[in-house]
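Table 4 source record.
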Amino acid sequence: MFFSCIEGFSSVKCFLSLYRFQACVYFASVFQAMSCGIHYLASVFMAVTPNFVCGFPGNVSSVLFHNSSASSIEDIWTLWTSTENYIVVQLENGEIWELDQCSRSKREVSLDLTYEYKGNKSVFPCSDGFLYDDTKWKSTVVTQWDLVCDREWLAKLIQPMFMLGVLIGAVIFGDIADRLGRQRVIWFTSAGQFVFGIAVAFTFHYYSFVIVRFLLAMVSSGYLVVAFVYVTEFVGIKARTWASMHVHAFFAMGIMIVALVGFLVRTWWVYQIFLSIATLPFVLCCWMLPETPFWLLSEERYEDAQKVIDTMARWNKVSTPCKVSELCSVQRDDLASDRTGDDETSSAKKHNILDLFCNWQIARRTITVWLIWFTGSLGYYVFSLSSVSLGGNEYLNLFLIGAVELPCYIIACVAMDRLGRRNTLIPFLLLSALICVLIMFIPQVTNMAGKFSIGVAFGLIYLYTAELYPTIVRSLAVGSGSMMCRVGSVVAPFCVYLRSVWIFMPLLLVGIMALLSGILTIMLPETLGKPLTNTLVEATEMGRNKKSCSEKTPPAHSGTALEKIEMFGQERVRTDK
């Protein structure tokens, strides 16, 4: 299948020297991951709440704020320093009003315009709307629908509802990809990101905005989950680490694009349109992407798999392409004669999340993997919430938050290829736990180190999960793991609220979870340099010695065939060159 690169090359060189076909498929697929990063972080500026005060009934003649006076409220915003402040305005009819954020007071005696007033006042609700500071943002969803004061909870609901859509989409589309194929899901979710992304900009009601964003979250999450599986199945063993990890790098680039567009465009619906346009190039060409031969073989569609392999051979200029019929003849015979047990029928039946708990080995693996996903997401967002409070330019801060992820993935890739997936994951999880303790003593120094270390573990788990499970449930495994990841991202803000109990309570919880995850990871098998498994039998055997495998389980011919296909490219390179 021409997946592997020339033996002896380093992983970096191998990644850069992917065959032409795999390279086109890879970069086309990961380009769309930028859109996922964009939509995940779009609400950072879209739902920002600027300074505001109650509106007033009439035309203003003069404005007073402490010792400063002006002719309009717009001139006062630069002096606004606290939500506890209020503005005094005098109307053309002589009335004097004190404007707070969620109420307004009319002075009974309006002789002199002074800031301090000890007389009687009549308090009124903000029935004339609100006045917003448009210095930074001309319009946000908060200003458009007045999501402040007693409606503030609606603004706070925007991101949790999006993350709920991400959670549901990860499971639904992961399962659909295992049933209907990776290609169809990539087509649908790519088009969905563009359509729903543009539709968000033209919603003129809060509830329709939330619903469309919920659907956008589902397709964005669905694409990201399936894209990881898709590129993993198309890229060979030696390049798999760098190829899959750099999907995260494109996601981080999406975060940086949000910062750039947010700096240039200050109207929320125009901002949303510009962000969604990034999806358009891939939508126009995604229909050309093929189905993965791994999935076709798992569905016994040998002729279709052969067509894909022949196409790869023509693109890569390989004169003698691999013949699936020769490599899979043993598999086809065994599947026809031995479909009497549960494991043998696994490739013929429809799979669901219960297959991730089909036996004790797989169930223990699933629980551990889910815990790592949850811990990685929880730690990532808890550290990030501290990182964004750096002061200074918020656009630059967000840009740096995305940029700091790039070196973390490079280090993770080098360590994963040199030390292995498990041997990299364990120390970085334990390091995150240690940093959560050290941050109590030197918070300024260790906060970014904590984000860096948890980022390595968080990025690694995507590839590790895809390699731990067989083809028939791989998308489902990654999707369910992503679901636990979203649970962690939803829990993270509530975890931060525990700072009112003890300022270091959120970090203590992250440290405990990271320590537990690091210990449990010791029991997971290493997947470095091993071909992807195709059946639950092979996945169960992973990590056992050959003796125990031969005694307890039958030979897995399908995995052997797939291994031959995956390594065929390496041998073909030697003979052709």
